[in-house]
Amino acid sequence: MWAPVQELAGNVRAGRTTARSLVERSLARIEAVNGRINAFVEVHTSAALARADAVDAQVKAGQDPGPLAGVPVALKDNMCTVEGHTTCGSAMLKGYRSPFDAGVVERLHAAGAVIVGKTNLDEFAMGSSTETSVFGPTKNPWDLSRVPGGSSGGSAAAVAAGCVPVALGSDTGGSIRQPASHCGVVGIKPTYGRVSRWGLVAYASSLDQIGPLAVRVADCALVTRVICGHDGRDSTSAPVEAAGIDRDLEEGVEGLVIGVPAEARGGGNHAGVASALEGTLGALRLAGAEIMDIELPHAGLGIAAYYLIATAEASSNLARFDGVRYGHRASLLDGDGLDALYCRSRAQGFGREVRKRIMLGTHALSSGYYDAYYGRALKVRRLIKGDYDAAFAKGCDAVLMPASPGPAFLLGSKSGGGDPLAMYLEDVFTVGVNLAGLPAITVPAGFAEEGGMELPVGVQLIGPALSENRLLRVAGMVERAMGVAGRMAQPF
Amino acid sequence: MSGSPPSHTPDADSSLTAAQVRKVASLAKLELADGEVERLRGELGAILTHAQRLQALNLDGVEPLTTPLEMTGPMAEDVPSGVLATEALHAMAPATDGAFIKVPKVLGDGGGA
What we know:
The structure holds two protein chains of two kinds.
Chain A: H1 5-13, H2 19-37, E1 40-43, H3 45-60, E2 72-76, H4 103-110, E3 114-119, H5 153-160, E4 166-171, H6 177-183, E5 186-189, E6 209-214, H7 217-227, E7 257-261, H8 271-286, E8 290-294, H9 302-317, H10 338-349, H11 352-365, H12 371-393, E9 398-402, H13 431-436, E10 440-450, E11 453-462, H14 468-482
Parallel strand pairs in A: 2-3, 2-4, 7-8, 7-9
Antiparallel strand pairs in A: 1-3, 4-6, 5-6, 5-10, 9-11, 10-11
Helix pairs in contact in A: 2-3, 5-6, 8-14, 9-11, 9-12
Chain B: H1 18-27, H2 34-50, H3 86-92, E1 96-97, E2 100-101
Antiparallel strand pairs in B: 1-2
């Protein structure tokens, strides 16, 4: 297992180890396991080694490469990189090369990190299982017959299998937190606006947020600090400093108030999830936190509101893929015009789930249906945010709930098309956070037995906007008390 | 586009007709195979039926929330910033002709947009 990121970078900065040795170790691990888990869609071997050598040269020259000096990082393949390709797991962007690096890539490089490759995802980040990628499904390192969750399943699996100590994902409705739970790693979705989305291929712009997945809370905290901060190229970027975000991890939770909604303890949860949640509550109480019952009366409307809003925004964002300026272009027959170029290129380039979501969003925005669907969903969104605001106003410092109702499910079991809603209901505990723009973190908190296997489950902590510092502090305590974070996947 | 001609209040069974599915596909600029229409009727219908639960609420006086960001970012200076080189843009396009991005005929017999 990888040592803490701070220690890895500290050793490189002090000359006790080299960036090259860390990157070589990461590349060797990817080589050894990726054939089985399909977490990486592309590995940037020579570029990564060249950057590692540059970091080592900086150290030799007496310069400080930064807080992530030499740390190997994997990037979800919906973030633009000049190196290699940026595909979003879609035939639409197969072979696409970005002419620029995303804002988070610039920040990682400036901090001395080394990007070793791009990770698999549900096509255009639309999914909860990493099964819809044109590169095929990613498998869960804990049990290769199961999904890693999604849509940042490649990033979660890459960390769980020990390929990298940290990876970036993106979270529109749970896409960092749910795979973190299914793969037994830590994952944080920062407050909406804290991390620049410049160079993140847009899915639903009022919901998307980039965040790290890592072995430990402290690793996530450090990387969050590095990637947070204002970026004038993203008009939704918040002008807020992130300096102290990882300062209080060891502070404990004495005197903090943790809210628990009744819905979180509902009968729909797997026994392993219920037991991880109760165990966490007990640990928090023992550590001096006060537990408060809260109500989120509109939480049951979250899935409906989310899937109307997210798909409406997607139908608009994905209009740019028209076969003209970039991406897949269909071959045309004699007499076919521009409309045929658009319609056929999009039908061929987008996979089934993406086409379905574009259709749903187009319908929700269409004349005569706008008020009933998109308009009502936006009003319900305000009510959902209001529920959280009310809980925080009552004195609650963080809300505790599962990240997912169950552990990782079997490949194909929810994507077969039998029940189109089954996959969407995976997100029942995560979408409210995106609708309200709040920060939330998943921490491994236990195991669930399923088919004779022990599978990891995480709990989710949700805080008020810009409360990452306190959220990480609570997460750090949960990590220490539950003692399951950092247990690497077997048989890897 | 909000609310123009009569706004529908969807029924409990929110299935779309085949004609509606075809109309939405045309709005979304997606070519549909014949078999896809029936499948999409079922899949979209299931989600829209779930979304029925939004219809029962009294939402009078509730303001829509389009973005959770409750702060205004600083205004950018009104000065030209760097743009991508023409060559970089050309390199991304699926078909080019000299300095131009190539598309099928827009006007005339085969035109369509």
